[in-house]
Amino acid sequence: MRRSQIDAAWKGTAECRNCGIRDLVLFADLTEPDFSLIHLPIDEMTFPPGATLYDAEGDGHSVFTIRSGLVKLVQYLPDGTQRIVRLLRPGAVAGLEVLVGTTHQHTAVALQEVAVCRIPRDVIERLSRETPRLHRQLMQRWHQALQQADDWLTELSTGSARARLARLLIQLAGDAPDRPVRLFSREDLGAMLGITMETASRTVAEFKRQGLVREIAPNVALCNVPELREASGID
Amino acid sequence: MRRSQIDAAWKGTAECRNCGIRDLVLFADLTEPDFSLIHLPIDEMTFPPGATLYDAEGDGHSVFTIRSGLVKLVQYLPDGTQRIVRLLRPGAVAGLEVLVGTTHQHTAVALQEVAVCRIPRDVIERLSRETPRLHRQLMQRWHQALQQADDWLTELSTGSARARLARLLIQLAGDAPDRPVRLFSREDLGAMLGITMETASRTVAEFKRQGLVREIAPNVALCNVPELREASGID
DNA sequence: CGCACCCTTGAAATTACTCAAGTTCAGTGG
DNA sequence: CCACTGAACTTGAGTAATTTCAAGGGTGCG
């Protein structure tokens, strides 16, 4: 907690015009004159694993474009239970809700070293008023988030612990089934799947024993996608 | 299935200018000249309980503003399991995703007699291009949907069956704790809470026995909100 | 009346949770 | 260099919750 703010490192003011991943980000469609409407600095920042990008307390003044790394969005129940409601990958935008209300709905925490662009709310609002080219992108981000939320519910909160974990691993492996996947802490796994830490641990262990994943380094695993797919349906 | 399309009843072409609930709907902020941009008919329709507004197969050409009644959004897993991912109330918009892609992501089914306005995608797209007054409303709908999705996950897919049902009932009672609440079929309850029909049935029965709800007519109940709140936290 | 459909209930089997003890491992200080 | 510590993970055993499978109501409708 204590470290969250302190840990953020400022990397300079972003030069959006020359952004290396601009086709991926919110400003993809902006034209040269549009950029002159940006009257507040957009900061490039990095956060180490465990650092908080923003939380649900306090006003939200900015949205964040994820440039690299992985972010979890956490929501709490009154009794203190926490659920991870989404993972954000590069290209995603965190904190869109400040464009409608003024507070964030989640706590956003870096799971790995994360690089972001922090965009003041006013910048988005002004661009949104003055140029239609941002709309399509904004709509796409909203859509992306909502689709992910719905899928998260049906895939990761339905069925046995075994089936849920299998589906999560398939998601993480994505379209590159051979690329190793970083596993999360057992506590985070539990919060994603709606199960306890112990059940998460046991299920991971079972997957290793049965060869559905092969651990090639501590908390890094190769997925046996066909067998995982099997496990995601049955059970 | 067979009845879904047949059952829809056409009630005429909507006169949005004079809409009785316009402050509630998507077109709330439009001005007189904006309406002239609407070049395709917006139909008022009603659906009986059980009818399908649209489904995930086939192209989506329209979004729907819910004028009255209650709609469930259903998503299916490959193995046939179904989850209800959201409930739509009057004022909500169903099918926003066709503004980004071209297909619907859910199957939308009326739970009660439902009245809607069916708005062709092209109408929204044109208005969206030409007038900024729709943007704010669109953003609010996206936000509303996303917030509901996240809350649905943390509240209705976390904890014991008892706690989940209690939270659902509290949601349904809303700000009018004395107004009777219609219960859903046990199958729908299960699909909302991620539990089986039998567990849903047993838990409802238990709530009745323990006085957390009082059934004043078949499938209509009064909620004892304080005790429900109790049950939603403990367990 | 009899059939369909939905809901309820029971009993056994399974799954997941809880609580508790042990393990591993990295970081710290003697 | 090594013991010590804390944090995260693992594992076991008992318990609680949920699912599964099966049978038995109730109600509306042809």
Give a brief description.
Two copies of one chain form a homodimer. Chain A has 235 residues and is of the alpha+beta class.
Order of helical and strand elements of chain A: HEHEEEEEEEEHHHEHHEEH
Poorly predicted runs of 5 or more residues of chain A = 1-5
Total beta strands of chain A: 12
In DSSP terms, counting alpha (H) and pi (I) runs of 4 or more, how many helices of chain A? 8
Number of individual domains of chain A: 2
Distance between the termini of chain A: 38 Å
Structural class of chain A: alpha+beta
Name the beta content range of chain A: 15-25%
Give the overall pLDDT of chain A as a whole number: 92
Q: Assign the CATH topology of the largest domain in chain A.
A: Jelly Rolls
Please name the fourth-level CATH homologous superfamily of the largest domain in chain A. Answer: Jelly Rolls
Radius of gyration of chain A: 19 Å
- Biggest sheet overview of chain A: 5 strands, antiparallel
Oligomer: homodimer
So, CATH architecture of the largest domain in chain A?
Sandwich
Hey, which two chains have the biggest interface?
A: A-B, 40 and 41 residues
- The general outline of chain A is elongated
Strand order of the largest sheet of chain A: 1-2-9-4-7
